[in-house]
Specification:
mainly beta, 7-stranded mixed β-sheet
């Protein structure tokens, strides 16, 4: 079992930065791939980026590539999403999620989300 709690959301002006954190409780966090997703009201949840178990590999959606970066500290069971050059279209609820490598994410663990609002 893994429980995930996101934090760090808030209101920021366009062009600003925010750093989201995802803290996990449970065992063997370093064996899980972690992904960030976001969801705007009334829209489908979309993939933002992900990080491998060790942190050696990351990947990002084209819409955030070059602006967002993901890192993890397995000693602290924490994954961060650094968001720079924020745009109003980045406004959404942001969720972290974790699952074993190679899974189809159907049984992934999810946090409750943190809200990000970017004003123009």
């Amino acid at each position: 079992q893994v429980q995930l709690v996101e934090s760090g959301g808030g209101l920021v002006q366009a062009g600003g930065s925010l750093r989201l954190s995802c803290v996990a409780t449970g065992r063997a966090f370093n064996s899980y791939v972690v992904r960030w997703f976001r969801q705007e009201t009334g829209k489908e949840r979309e993939f933002v980026g992900g990080i491998s178990q060790s942190g050696a590999r990351t990947d990002y959606a084209n819409s955030v590539k070059g602006r967002f970066s993901i890192s993890r500290d397995n000693a602290k069971n924490t994954v961060h999403l650094q968001m720079n050059a924020l745009k109003p279209e980045d406004t959404a609820d942001y969720y972290c999620s974790a699952d074993r490598p190679g899974s189809d994410w159907a049984g992934a663990y999810w946090g409750r989300g943190t809200q990000v609002t970017v004003s123009s």
